[in-house]
């Protein structure tokens, strides 16, 4: 019984043997950086003043962006959950379960890029999740209003009747059939029950048949009949005009008398396609999510929500329980707005050439944030508290005086609390008290559990009915639902009238003159709605939690070919630029709220990073310029200077190494990340800047281009898929001019004999730095079958030679002595 009263999760600080050297190196690097700039600023290059100024400006920018990136990682944490305690506490024997309900949202838009089979697998993994059936409801948002999606979903609901009992009976993982059956496990070896083997084989056959049915739906949907689609009962499909159609809701499973083949109930499954009319702004995915928030509030109104992209299936059937260990924790839970899980992926090439797995971000940056105010929201695999989405402030925390953050005592950089003597004494007292507290805590649990109730009603009761209507829109049923602090639907509500209301709340004018997308729900104004949505919550003083179960909770797919990947990164960067220019820009927005300053650093970093593309491109051209002109960005180097440079270089590498150690990240992942930072930086980020500026200056609208989620055609054939895109031009140009410059530089040195190798070394090193970073890009260009599209080659060679030529003519970096005759860097005298 005592076990049930223990905390449901624990924060594990990173061992100090890892974290202390890490912090030391950061401080050292900061100091070295000081020396570096001291030297750089005091030692201009007189015969190439322009070069020197440009490079120093770039370096200053890099230093700033390093600081923005580094310090939010100052006190990383890890967490541990106790699922057994959760179930001891909330699933008492012989009593109905007390676990909270969860509404799960799946977003899909385009069945050609997001194959129905993938969505079906996600839905199946949700329906089979290890959680009380009546506490789970799955809502699928179809922004494409596709009959194919609808029919595939109803096939899926039929197949779920067999699949769900199978999963639960044999506790299999993962519960997405495609991925389950593609696991290579020899079941005959492990002495499993013969009944299981038989069942599994039968199930596999059933799944194959299901797949055939889905595939035939897909192939039937290839060509649209002239009169549009007709449903099985002969009526025309309401969504025949994708841009102009009524809202559609269909309850496919749950509470409808449909049971699985063993007679058990199934979770609710609801198809939703919000109304679309020309002339209305639909706000892409954020708009879809907000429609689901309202529909689900009317139909099931669970106090918690989970949202996943259509390709992110539940890979760990206990994922919901993991989240509940934080959300339902009586002491910690009530201030948590969401629990974010890392994104993990299937089907990525072994070397992860384009850094699709984003390991450095998910295992290092996000863990760092968890030590401050919590990870940022990344759009999928995230469990929300419904009330936090309604734009309320976090409940006020009664903090122990003198401490404003949750970091371990020793490292209070984020709240900046310095420990005076007094505080230390108090700390010691606290330590003694702690012992007593923990036993008090158990007693306090009951009182808090009673007390939680009051929190939201308090907030809501401050708001008048008129204000509520202005905030949430005109649906009385929806407004009433927001006042129910623990969710749920009033008993007297009739399903038919609720469905009617649900249609109302997904109409396209519902949000007019309300706070939806501004203060409530997913926030509009950027194609990366995720950053903005999480940011708003943190500004309201909420904290989020990062949860990394051993078995990854969710898994998705990622674009593994170069062009798609660059487009994805382009969209993310564009979203950041949009936020940068909006009123929600974290540089200016939300002071005096609950946002901690290191958390703000991180948000600033996540919206300014596209700007780094400008200094980065300049910095990548510099080595070529230097090699071609014979000038360099530093004057002849003294011993002191070379020590500073070496120290800086070593400290940069060292921070990488220690960070990898506490993050558990491998060197290859880290290196890929560095490479892709340059590749993405010189192409996608730059284009994002332009598109973002176009939006601000000329009002050009931005698109959400969904990435294609490949089926399982295996062998990474996708990796070599090549699509022409102008995103490829800048990195190709950079590559060519640098390679040309290296060749020129070396041949120059060969001509000039031994002495000229010394100064050349620095420049060559610099140019090679660029080339190595762009190497995966080069591989992507050449592709599998050596088919570099001529158009890119022509363009890039043209650009490269244009640049080189104009360089020789008008050399702005040569200030002294007028025109110096230099052809290809060869000194002619
Ligand atoms: O008008 C739209 C456009 C997109 N989506 C959905 O948005 C999701 C994300 O699209 P995807 O092309 O997979 O984008 P990714 O870049 O892979 O997604 C990451 O980045 C997005 C922000 O750019 C987040 O929304 C995602 O959750 C996050 O996984 C998909 O489920 C789509 O169905 C909609 O529902 N309606
Ligand atoms: Mn995706």
TrEMBL record:
Enzyme Commission no: 2.4.1.12
Q: Kindly provide the name given to this protein in its UniProt entry.
A: cellulose synthase (UDP-forming)
> Which cofactors is this protein said to need?
Mn(2+); Zn(2+)
- Binding residues annotated for UDP-alpha-D-glucose, in chain numbering: 107, 113-114, 143, 284
A GO BP term, please?
A: cellulose biosynthetic process
- What positions does UniProt annotate as the active site of this protein? 143, 530
Family of this protein: Belongs to the glycosyltransferase 2 family. Plant cellulose synthase subfamily.
Its localization reads: Cell membrane
List residues binding Mn(2+).
285, 309
User: Which controlled-vocabulary keywords does the entry list?
Assistant: Cell membrane, Cell wall biogenesis/degradation, Cellulose biosynthesis, Glycosyltransferase, Manganese, Membrane, Metal-binding, Transferase, Transmembrane, Transmembrane helix, Zinc, Zinc-finger
The metabolic or biological pathway listed in the UniProt record of this protein is: Glycan metabolism; plant cellulose biosynthesis
Give the membrane topology, semicolon-separated if more than one.
Multi-pass membrane protein
Its recorded reaction(s) are: [(1->4)-beta-D-glucosyl](n) + UDP-alpha-D-glucose = [(1->4)-beta-D-glucosyl](n+1) + UDP + H(+)
Q: Where is the chain membrane-spanning?
A: 20-37, 49-68, 608-628, 640-658, 678-700, 721-746, 758-778, 790-810
Cellular component, GO annotation? plasma membrane
GO molecular-function terms, A-Z = cellulose synthase (UDP-forming) activity; zinc ion binding
């Amino acid at each position: 019984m005592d076990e049930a009263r223990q905390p449901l999760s624990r924060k594990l600080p990173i061992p100090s043997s890892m974290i202390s050297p890490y912090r030391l190196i950061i401080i050292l690097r900061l100091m070295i950086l000081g020396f570096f700039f001291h030297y750089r600023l005091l030692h201009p290059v007189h015969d190439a003043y322009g070069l020197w100024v440009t490079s120093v400006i770039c370096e200053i920018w890099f230093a700033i962006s390093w600081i923005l990136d580094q310090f939010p990682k100052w006190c990383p944490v890890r967490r541990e959950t106790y699922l057994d305690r959760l179930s001891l506490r909330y699933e008492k024997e012989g009593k109905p379960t007390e676990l909270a309900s969860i509404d799960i949202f799946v977003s899909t838009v385009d069945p050609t890029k997001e194959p129905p089979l993938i969505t079906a697998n996600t839905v199946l993994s949700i329906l089979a999740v290890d959680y009380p059936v009546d506490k789970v409801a799955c809502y699928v948002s179809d922004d494409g209003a596709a009959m194919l999606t609808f029919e595939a979903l109803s096939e899926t609901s039929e197949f779920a009747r067999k699949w769900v009992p199978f999963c639960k009976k044999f506790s299999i993982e993962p519960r997405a059939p495609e991925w389950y059956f593609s696991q290579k496990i020899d079941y005959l070896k492990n002495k499993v029950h013969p009944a299981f083997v038989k069942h599994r084989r039968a199930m596999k056959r059933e799944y194959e048949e299901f797949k055939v049915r889905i595939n035939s739906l897909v192939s039937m949907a290839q060509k649209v009949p002239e009169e549009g689609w007709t449903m099985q009962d002969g009526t025309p499909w309401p969504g025949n005009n994708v841009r102009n159609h009524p809202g559609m809701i269909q309850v496919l499973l749950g509470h409808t008398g449909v049971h699985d083949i063993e007679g058990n109930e199934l979770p609710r499954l609801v198809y939703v396609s919000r109304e679309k009319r020309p002339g209305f702004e639909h706000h892409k995915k954020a708009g879809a999510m907000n429609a689901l928030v309202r529909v689900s509030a009317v139909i099931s109104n669970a106090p918690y929500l989970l949202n996943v992209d259509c390709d992110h299936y539940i890979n760990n059937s206990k994922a919901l329980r993991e989240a509940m260990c934080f959300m339902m924790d009586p002491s910690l839970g009530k201030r948590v707005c969401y629990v974010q899980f890392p994104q993990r992926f299937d089907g990525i090439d072994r070397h992860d050439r384009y850094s699709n797995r984003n390991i450095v971000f998910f295992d290092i940056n996000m863990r760092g944030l968890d030590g401050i105010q919590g990870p940022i929201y990344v759009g999928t695999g995230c469990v929300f508290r419904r009330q936090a989405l309604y734009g309320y402030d976090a409940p006020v925390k009664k903090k122990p005086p003198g401490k404003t953050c949750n970091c371990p005592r020793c490292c209070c950089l984020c709240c900046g609390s310095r420990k005076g003597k007094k505080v230390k004494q108090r700390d010691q007292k606290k330590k003694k008290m702690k012992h007593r507290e923990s036993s008090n805590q158990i007693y306090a649990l009951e009182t808090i559990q009673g007390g939680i109730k009051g929190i939201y009603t308090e907030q809501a009761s401050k708001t008048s009915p008129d204000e509520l209507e202005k905030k949430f829109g005109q649906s009385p049923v929806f407004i009433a639902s927001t006042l129910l602090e623990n969710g749920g639907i009033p008993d007297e509500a009739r399903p038919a009238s609720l469905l009617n209301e649900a249609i109302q709340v997904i109409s396209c004018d519902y949000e007019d003159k309300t706070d939806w997308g501004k203060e409530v729900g997913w926030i509009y104004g950027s194609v990366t709605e995720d950053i903005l949505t999480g940011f708003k919550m943190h500004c309201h003083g909420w904290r989020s939690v990062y949860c990394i179960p051993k078995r990854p909770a969710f898994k998705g797919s990622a674009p593994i070919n170069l062009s798609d990947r660059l487009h994805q990164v382009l969209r993310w960067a564009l979203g950041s630029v949009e936020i940068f220019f909006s009123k929600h820009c974290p540089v200016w927005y939300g002071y005096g709220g609950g946002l901690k300053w290191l958390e703000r650093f991180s948000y600033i970093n996540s919206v300014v990073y596209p700007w780094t593309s400008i200094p980065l491109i300049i910095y990548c051209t510099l080595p070529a310029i230097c090699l071609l002109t014979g000038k360099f960005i530093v004057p002849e180097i003294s011993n002191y200077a070379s020590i500073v440079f070496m120290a800086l270089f070593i400290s940069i590498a060292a921070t990488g190494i220690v960070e990898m150690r506490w993050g558990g990240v491998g060197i290859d992942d880290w290196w890929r990340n560095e490479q892709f930072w340059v590749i993405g930086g010189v192409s996608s980020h730059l284009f994002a800047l332009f598109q973002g500026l176009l939006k601000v200056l000329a009002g050009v609208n931005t698109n959400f281009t969904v990435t294609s989620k490949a089926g399982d055609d295996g062998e990474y054939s996708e990796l070599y898929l090549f699509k022409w895109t102008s995103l490829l031009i800048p990195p190709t140009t950079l590559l060519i001019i640098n390679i040309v410059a290296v060749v020129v530089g070396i041949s120059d040195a060969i001509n000039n004999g031994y002495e000229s190798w010394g100064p050349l070394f620095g420049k060559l090193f610099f140019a090679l730095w660029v080339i190595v970073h762009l190497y995966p890009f080069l591989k992507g260009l050449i592709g599998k079958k050596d088919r570099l599209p001529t158009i890119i080659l022509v363009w890039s060679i043209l650009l490269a030679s244009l640049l080189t030529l104009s360089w020789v003519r008008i050399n702005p970096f040569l200030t002294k002595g007028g025109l110096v005759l230099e052809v290809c860097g060869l000194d002619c005298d």
